[in-house]
Design brief:
heterodimer; A: about 375 residues; alpha/beta; TIM Barrel; Arc Repressor Mutant, subunit A; three-stranded antiparallel sheet; globular; B: alpha+beta; Rossmann fold; Elongation Factor Tu (Ef-tu), domain 3; Alpha-Beta Plaits; eight-stranded antiparallel sheet; six-stranded antiparallel sheet; 14 helices; GTPase activity (chain B)
Chain lengths: ~375, ~600
């Protein structure tokens, strides 16, 4: 049996945030009920596929999965356990947003076997939360966090966001300190991207109101400071935007970069099974060898560990040098890539311009 | 063909300002004389290049023979010789006119007389043609035929009272045009028995027949087997076939004799042997003197053309060779640019000619091109007495070796309504024009005459003219020799390295302005790279302008969404694709379009 990651998508939220272009939207109770029922049905429909796999991680993402009733989460996990073989030590995460979580829900999560909670905070500054269009205050987050600890969650992630409009470097540093002092096991620190189709795009798209956004120089400083500050609290950066205490790296997330097979269930969810990729509702696309090699490189480079030459050779029966010799050399010369005995990874300068480096690995 | 009575032949062309309906009238005449039924007609038979139809202009001269039964009961043979409609091809126009005995002047009933109307009429009168005016587009609501008739009489000085008032589009009154051709256009003259004397007014290359020469027989007779001599080029051949022009096809016949228009094939391999304007004579029994007016057409505008993909260099050469088979005025020679690799320095009659060739290379030969800024031919007088004709700025000698330089000038006539005279005068002033005079052709319209450097009108003069006159100004020019001028070579340095493909010659007085604009434009076009890139404009070792492309600080996608890597891949692919269209100069990557963007330094 091969390892498999499961992703379950819950496309509901209370209110769309100003930066969010995920598949999620406000909904009514009836819609949610119907969706959960059909999700369970879909899960069960993978009965045959499930036979070849054992599940190493589950991630319930959204939207705001914590919006669902306890009963509905239980329903979903019932379907999952009925269909899949799940490792006893599987990492099982659920995304929760402050303001939607209760003691009762947290207990239900625990009962379902959920052992990791990912809380969307974004900022410890209420004025920034407001600008982002979040529905909660920092105070409410603290309350949720405490509740989660009380309920026995020993593995908690907090999502943070830098580059928020009007945010200063000092603002960001304060948020980092505030949150790190709470000692969550994992911190995701993303920088804001103005995506098309969001309210932020209306305001900031095509270089409008540029003065309100931290400039590139500040934005990079924020990134450098993130690592410095979080390291001082005992976190290490294991992926471009992810920090963890040793042993708490998000396995599910790493699986995406290492090309572990994963099955996404729910509206628009992405899957990689055998040599095919698809988003739910779309026609699977077969990845040829070239595409697979490219992915191995540009996905693997997102992790700080990078890509192993030995693994590459084992998978593709060709040495990495024979495929990418010239790029490796050139990128190393430019100081963007570190090419070791076995591991190839980005340098700090390489992280800054990682898209440029990664694009070089397209054949 | 033998035995056709000269008095039943009419050789004529149609002249007009662009868009006044020349080609539409030609189509209607062809249709009404029954050469083609309207169902068979694809609009505008004579403009048979795809590009010509698209742009609504005639590039190559086209010719068609039509038989018309007139009201007097007699059958007449019309040879309609369509002329190119653009100033770039002025010489071809003049040769086409020389093949005619009369011209139909088409004037738009709303627009009236325009700059090219005048230029074309003068050209026709220079060739002693009888000009027969026709007022077109009388069906337009804004048509004012009476005013236009008056204008033709006042401005041009030809009688227009009985000019047919037609709509070539609907066919209204086109029958009057046909009758008037018979009445007003003189029959050809010339002695069939005299030594052969025929004017070449066009030629094209056909892969089966070789070169096909279009000619007007002025004197004598030519038929299969006649040994012929091109008097200017000295090329000799034996005639393989003679014939006349059907609609889009060649129809062989016995012989061509004085007064007729037709074609000759003689297994000639190169159109260069059959230059437009040359005289064909009988090699064994030559005429005493060639027809007057032959001149070799020389390119006026030069630019570098490079394949975007260096590996396509041989393809570009093949394509240019093929185009040249049909276009003797196109010149090219190999050149090498440090920035762009292997390519060709190409010479054109003008900017339109350049654009047409460029478009044909891209469309018909599927080539992706990088074109450098077009320039004119400068005469460089060196201190040692040598004179260089400079077509590539990179070849400019060291300033210490230069005594002085000369640049080509044009005489321009701009016709404009009075409200825009000020704006157009400003424009000409900015382009270093010297005012020569102005005449009102009617109360609200005037002709402005300027002496302008060719270099100043080859870029975007026409566009500027149109935009500053809200489309009302029309423009025509002719070459007018060389004058001494204070010219300098402006170099562009990117990351301290001179980029040869971006150098150009400019007048000293405008060098700073141009240099500044170039740097600004390049700053927009060159994407940020891993390091800071200075962009400088320099004259010799003196830097006159500078911009900086800041280093790329950040190019990182923070988040990947729930394992959906398709958008990440798309982003990377886009980046990679963008890189493919870049040229590496030193260690800077310059997008191909940057080389061309400098052609469009906005006027305002």
């Amino acid at each position: 049996m091969k390892p498999l990651e499961l992703y379950l998508h819950i496309p509901f939220c209370i209110q769309k945030c100003n930066y969010c272009d995920f598949l999620s939207a406000p909904s009514c109770a009836g819609e949610r009920k119907v969706y959960v029922e059909s999700l369970c049905q879909k899960i069960r429909s993978y009965k045959d596929l499930a036979k070849a796999y054992h599940v190493v991680s589950i991630f319930v993402g959204g939207g705001t999965p914590s919006l669902l009733l306890s009963k509905q989460i239980e329903q979903i996990f019932e379907a999952v356990r009925e269909t899949f073989v799940i490792d006893s030590d599987a990492e099982i995460s659920l995304e929760a947003n402050p303001g939607t979580v209760t003691e009762e829900k947290l207990q239900a999560y625990r009962n379902c076997g959920i052992n990791r909670l990912s809380i969307g905070l974004q900022s410890a500054k209420d004025r920034e939360l407001k600008r982002l269009g979040r529905i909660h205050t920092y105070e409410e987050f603290l309350w949720t966090y405490e509740l989660a600890r009380k309920a026995g969650f020993l593995n908690i992630n907090v999502d943070l966001m830098s580059g928020i409009p009007l945010q200063t470097l000092a603002d960001w540093e304060e948020t980092l300190h505030e949150v790190a002092r709470l000692k969550p096991e994992h911190i995701s620190a993303y920088s804001l991207i103005v995506e098309e189709g969001t309210p932020f795009y209306e305001r900031y798209g095509n270089g409008k109101h540029l003065e309100e956004l931290p400039d590139e120089e500040t934005e990079r400083k924020m990134y450098y400071r993130t690592r410095e500050i979080l390291e001082s609290y005992g976190y290490h950066r294991y992926e471009i935007s992810n920090y963890a205490r040793l042993g708490y790296e998000c396995r599910h997330n790493l699986g995406y970069w290492n090309r572990t097979e994963y099955l996404g269930i729910g509206t628009g969810a992405a899957s990689l099974i055998r040599e095919e990729r698809w988003n739910e509702g779309e026609i699977p696309e077969k990845l040829d060898r070239k595409a697979q090699m490219e992915e191995t490189m540009f996905l693997g480079l997102r992790t700080m560990k990078g890509v192993s030459k030995a693994e590459f050779a084992k998978t593709y029966q060709r040495t990495m040098e024979s495929v990418y010799g010239k790029v490796l050399e050139e990128m190393q010369k430019k100081g963007l890539l570190l090419v070791g005995e076995d591991q190839v990874c980005l340098t700090d300068a390489g992280i800054d311009v990682s898209n440029y480096v990664m694009s070089e690995f397209l054949l | 063909m033998a035995g056709i009575d000269q008095s039943k032949i009419r050789n004529f062309c149609i002249i007009a300002h662009i868009d006044h309906g020349k080609s539409t009238l030609a189509d209607r005449i062809i249709e009404m004389t029954g050469l083609l039924t309207s169902r068979e007609m694809q609009s505008q038979v004579l403009d048979n290049m795809e590009l010509e139809r698209e742009r609504g202009i005639t590039i190559k001269a086209q010719t068609v023979r039509i038989v018309y039964r007139a009201k007097d009961g007699e059958e007449y043979i019309f040879n309609l010789i369509d002329t190119p409609g653009h100033v770039d091809f002025n010489y071809e126009v003049s040769r086409s006119l020389a093949a005619c005995d009369g011209a139909i002047l088409v004037v738009d009933a709303a627009q009236g007389v325009e700059a090219q109307t005048l230029a074309n009429v003068y050209l026709a009168l220079d060739h002693d043609l009888d000009v027969m005016p026709v007022i077109n587009k009388v069906d337009l609501p804004s048509a004012d035929p009476d005013r236009v008739i008056e204008e033709i009489e006042d401005v041009i000085g030809i009688e227009a009272v009985d000019a047919p008032q037609i709509s070539a589009k609907t066919g209204l009154n086109v029958d009057q045009v046909l009758e008037q051709i018979v009445e007003k256009i003189p029959a050809p003259t010339g002695d069939k028995e005299a030594p052969l004397k025929a004017l070449i007014f066009d030629s094209l290359y056909d892969s089966y027949k070789g070169v096909i020469v279009f000619c007007r027989i002025k004197e004598g007779t030519v038929k299969k087997g006649t040994p012929i001599l091109m008097m200017a080029t000295g090329a000799k051949a034996e005639v393989v076939e003679v014939g006349y022009f059907g609609a889009g096809q060649f129809i062989p016949c016995e012989e061509l004799s004085a007064g007729m228009v037709g074609y000759i094939t003689a297994s000639l391999k190169n159109v260069k042997d059959t230059r437009v304007g040359d005289t064909i004579t009988n090699a064994q029994q030559p005429c005493k003197e060639p027809l007057p007016g032959y001149k070799k057409v020389n390119p006026m505008v030069y630019c570098g053309m490079y394949p975007a993909d260096g590996a396509k260099y041989p393809d570009l050469r093949d394509a240019l060779e093929k185009l040249q088979l049909n276009d003797a005025s196109l010149q090219f020679e190999p050149e090498t640019s440090i920035a762009l690799g292997f390519g060709f320095r190409c010479g054109f009659l003008g900017l339109l000619h350049l654009e047409i060739i460029q478009e044909r290379l891209e469309r018909e030969y599927n080539l992706d091109l990088v074109t450098t800024a077009p320039g004119v031919i400068y005469k460089v007088h060196k201190t040692n007495g040598e004179v260089i004709e400079l077509t590539n700025p990179s070849n400019l000698p060291d300033p210490s070796e230069i005594e002085y330089m000369e640049e080509p000038m044009v005489k321009a006539e701009i016709m404009v309504t009075s409200e825009f005279i000020g704006a157009i005068m400003d424009l000409c002033q900015e382009r270093r024009g010297v005012y020569e005079g102005m005449e009102y052709i009617e109360e609200t319209r005037a002709v402005l005459r300027y002496h302008l450097p060719l270099n100043e009108i080859i870029y975007d003069f026409f566009d500027a003219l149109k935009s500053r006159s809200r489309g009302y100004a029309s423009f025509d020019y002719e070459m007018d020799g060389y004058v001494q001028s204070e010219l300098v070579k402006l170099d562009i340095l990117i990351n301290k390295e001179e980029v040869d493909a971006l150098s150009f010659i400019v007048h000293e007085g405008t060098a700073y302005e141009r240099g500044r604009k170039m740097c600004e434009k390049l700053k927009e076009e060159i994407p940020r790279q891993l390091f800071e890139i200075p962009i400088q404009a320099a004259i010799g070792s003196k830097i006159i302008a500078r911009e900086t492309v800041k280093a790329m600080r950040k190019d990182v996608l923070a988040k990947c969404y729930g394992g959906d890597i398709s958008r990440k891949r798309k982003l990377l692919e886009k980046q990679k694709e963008g890189k493919k269209r870049m040229r590496q100069v030193g260690n800077v990557e310059i997008p191909q379009k940057a080389f061309m963007s400098v052609l469009k330094l906005d006027d305002k």
